Amino acid sequence: MVDGYSINGEMEKAREVFEKMPERNCFAWSSMVSGYCKKGDVKEAKFIFDRIPVRNLVNWNSLISGYVQNGFCEEAMKAFDEMRMQGYEPDEVTAVSVLSACAQSGLLDVGREIHDMIIEKGLECNQIVLNALVDMYAKCGDLARARSVFEGMTERNTACWNAMISGFSVHGQCEEALELFSMMESSEERLDEITFLSVLSACAHGGFVDEGMQIFSKIKKYGLVANVKHYGCLVDLFGRAGRLNEAYGLIKRMPMEPNDTVWGAMLGACRIHLDMEMTERVAIEINNLNSETDSDQNAHCVLLSNIYASSERWEKAERLRLVRTSEGFQKTPGCSSFMPRVS
């Protein structure tokens, strides 16, 4: 009952049954920890975890995995270190969670240590573990190591292909991303929305306009429907190439309402090419958006102000600055984080 309620996200009912249990085994404790983490209530998950009288590896894995799923990577690494200090040996589930934390945080050195640990302890390198390694190396920028693990896999699923294509795209190796996309098409693996999003992003950053248009046209072929992110990539593709009229026309023809990210990409292209006529048209569209958050409005105002300043239209740049000041927009302060190495 506890697990059933937890899986369905009904944590109040799960808690009610849980508190009435005369005895609780490790499975019940882990179900509660995982359930709260799935709901995003990490604080309550930790509270439950701290109540466990005798913990085992399953309990620790539930907590570490929950931290990672909610983006609390530093806490995940601390829990991992504490788990090992208390004498618990990690298994494949632990390794996958910690590798994901490294991938999200860009901790390449720690990720390499986890890889070494997997080999030293003889943990099973199943597809999930190998996928996690590829994803970690790709996101952290060690594309040679990511490709090495990828090439050594006897079986590859969609997530693994996507991790490699996205890694090449994010780190500027756009031709390699396109090459891998072609290889994936030739394989028997199914392409999904993330595959197309990653390769279209590579086309935009690499300036491959014709290739990008051709790839975009294939989305329907694979039984998929292009969403606003795919259209945003295409707008970015046209914009970076200086084809602003085509980008604007695409936005107006989109089958869904363009969001602030799409208009932001368009505005960024206007800045690159200093097209003031198009900037004015985009500025009107942005002013008509009703769904923007304050941070979105602030970012767009800053970008518009910079475009006007670059074109020596000081009066409009100053006017935008005064608008931002009068409406109370503040620059978001930067922040940094420190992550300890695996002991």
UniProtKB/TrEMBL annotation:
The keyword Glycosyltransferase does not apply. Keywords: Repeat. PPR repeats lie at residues 25-55, 56-90, 91-125, 126-156, 157-191, 192-226. InterPro entries: E_motif, PPR_At4g14850-like_plant, PPR_rpt, TPR-like_helical_dom_sf. SUPFAM superfamilies: TPR-like. Coiled coil: none annotated. GO terms for biological process: RNA modification. It comes from the Eukaryota. GO terms for molecular function: RNA binding. Gene3D superfamilies: Tetratricopeptide repeat domain. It holds the Pfam family E_motif. This is Pentatricopeptide repeat-containing protein.
